[in-house]
Write a structure and sequence with these properties.
One of its GO terms (cellular component) is cytoplasm. InterPro entries: Synaptobrevin-like, Synaptobrevin-like_transport, V_SNARE_CC. This protein has one domain. It has one helix at 2-67. It is 94% helix and 0% strand.
Length: 70
């Protein structure tokens, strides 16, 4: 019984180490995905901001050309 109990304890220790390793891998993958999604979101925001700036610039240039601001 003592030997059987020792084997069960060893199995539990091995499973615990495997779970710890899997948890660390999961955390690393989650961090990588979070960073990737942040960059994707930032790219979209920068593109939208650039388009808005270009539209405003076009409007200002059109208005100044019509009223001869230069």
């Amino acid at each position: 019984q003592v030997l059987d109990r020792g084997e069960k304890i060893e199995l539990l220790v091995d499973k615990t180490e495997d779970l710890r390793s899997q948890a660390q891998d999961f955390k690393k993958q989650g961090t990588k995905i979070r960073q990737k999604m942040w960059w994707e979101n930032m790219k979209i925001k920068l593109i939208a901001f650039g388009i808005i700036v270009l539209l405003i610039l076009c409007i200002i240039l059109t208005v100044c050309r019509d009223f001869k601001c230069w």
